[in-house]
Amino acid sequence: MAGSHPGTPTAGQESGYAAPHLAVIVPSFNERDNIELLYERLALALDGIPFEMVVVDDDSPDGTAGLTRELAQVYPNIRCIRRYGRRGLSSACVEGMASTAAPYLAVIDADLQHDERILPQMLEEAKAGADLVVGSRFAGHGSAAGGLSRARQRGSALATRLAGLVVGEAVSDPMSGYFLMPRTTFDAVASRLNKDGFKILLDLIATSRRQGRHLAIAEVPYDFRPRHAGESKMSPLIVVQYLGLWLSQLTRGVLPTSFLLFAMVGASGIFVHMAMLALATGPLGLPFVPAQVTATLVAMTSNFFLNNVLTYADRRLHGSRLWLGLLGFYVICSLGGIANISVATMVYDLRHETFVSGLAGALMSSVFNYAVTRVFTWK
Ligand code: GDD
Ligand code: MN
Q: Which of 62, 109, 219 to mutate to test the pocket of ligand 1 (most atoms within 8 A of CB)?
């Protein structure tokens, strides 16, 4: 595509800074050894197209942001958004896209797994009318084998099939982290995107659809490459987060992802409680009441830490705010317990059905705990 825009200065070179036509958003966490090479490859691939590279870095300990700023002194079409105390791939992409005035937006991983050479073709597809262009490992001659281990290929296949239930057959690679769109596509849904999680593309498609916008989607195949330097940030937590997003999409967004994750954590708390109770009354030999109190405290503590890393990964509490948050969480959950018993008693007085009353109480306290901790704990 070199020279396809005659007369426009080449961004990033001595000719000075041209208003970017394409913004390439690069979410990054510990990608220091990839950023410069990525920029060089982008500049080569996008020769003739004024672009800017927007690195959105979550204050990586390896100094990715500092290096990016140094590079930005040499290449004025590099920008760095450095976020403090935040983690999250989706929210990083959203904030990067929101930060630019370019009429076209792309998202690409920092680790060179996505083949940057197809970007000009992706841009052409968008200009030809596509609302969204997905770099796909599974369309045409694309492939995922090069960049994923066997186990991850299986996991990815399952996740892709689950995603298919939400987005239909329109996209062969709904889990892709590589895509491009006119900014109008982003602007139409930006305020409604779910910021906690890894799967921004799936969310973008499903949210657009709920708004009544059926996106014209084009795909450009590519071969997924092995990571250049550093390590993947994929983890069991990310997988559970994905499950939450997926369930939320199945309810057409009626139940927010964070509520579903909060509920999953709550359910895990029941297991923690029962295990602790067994331990306290058994090997530890405590009488029932102190054992029950201990089990309740342990379950609340485990719920708190799980919610902090999973449900609210994007606004995790640290340091002294973490411990204050934990104390507050105990108080809120105790109030939730009172709400639980009051509602259960009320329903029981009306209906005399143990199961229905118990369920009503439990639902009441989950919603109460969720709503109140959202306002006071993870605000
Ligand atoms: N700012 C920020 N914050 N960036 C993050 C975070 C975070 O918490 N977590 C990951 N990233 C950045 C990484 O630095 C990298 O540039 C990109 O997001 C992808 O992360 P990887 O850790 O390399 O993920 P992966 O290779 O296992 O999976 C990626 O590629 C798949 C195929 O396209 C992801 O993009 C998947 O969503 C995608 O399915
Ligand atoms: Mn990667």
A: 109
